[in-house]
Amino acid sequence: MDRRTFLAIPALLPVAACSRFPEYNGPEVTRVVVWKNERLMSLFHREEVLESYEIELGFAPEGHKFEYGDGRTPEGEYFIDRRNPNSDFYLSIGISYPNAEDIARAREAGVNPGGDIFIHGTPRPFRNIDDWTVGCIAVRNREMRQIYSMVQNGTPIMIHP
Q1: 31 CB contacts (<8 Å, ≥6 apart)?
Q2: Single pTM value for the model
Q3: Dmax of the chain from CA atoms?
Q4: Which long-range contacts (CB under 8 A, 24 or more apart) does 60-66 make?
Q5: What are phi and psi of 120, to 5 degrees?
Q6: SS3 for the chain, per residue?
């Protein structure tokens, strides 16, 4: 190995050791609970709160999401159903809205229930703005890194008014 190669290796180590996704080795997150009125989301292991976060919601947060574009964040029982490491909103994990009940209610009313509801980070233009999403749940980017590593697909999420 020549001197240039030997000197270049230590320069690359900090980049290689840095990960966008922190490793989580703690207790399993068995459910996520959101209280919309309190703007609070907590991650639970059984009955123990592991972490809690302040959140932002859709631009019209009161009430259950009914149709595409209404700006509401859904209420009810769902589960985490997908992950997006390349989200426009830093990182995101998907919520299984709409469920069969949401679809039936929207169909009966002749409207589109919408979809693509996520827990995601907050891009710079939206920092310090209250309830700016189109129905998603937003947290700070550094918190989203933690949530992304802790919450697995299939985890139940309960969203309360």
Answers
A1: 43, 44, 155, 156, 157, 158
A2: 0.84
A3: 73
A4: 60/131, 61/36, 61/131, 62/161, 63/161, 64/161, 65/97, 65/98, 65/102, 65/113, 65/114, 65/117, 65/135, 66/105, 66/106, 66/109, 66/111, 66/113
A5: -150, 175
A6: CCHHHHHHHHHHHHHHHCCCCCCCCCCCCCEEEEECCCCEEEEEECCEEEEEEECECECCCCCCCCCCCCCCCCCEEEEEEEEECCCCCCCEEEECCCCHHHHHHHHHHCCCCCCCEEEECCCHHHCCCCCCECCCEECCHHHHHHHHHHCCCCCEEEEEC
pLDDT in tens, the chain (161 residues): 444 444 444 444 444 444 567 789 999 999 999 999 999 999 999 999 999 999 999 999 999 999 999 999 999 999 999 999 999 899 999 999 999 999 999 999 999 999 999 999 998 778 888 899 999 999 999 999 999 999 999 999 999 99
Distance CA 149, CA 51 (A): 13
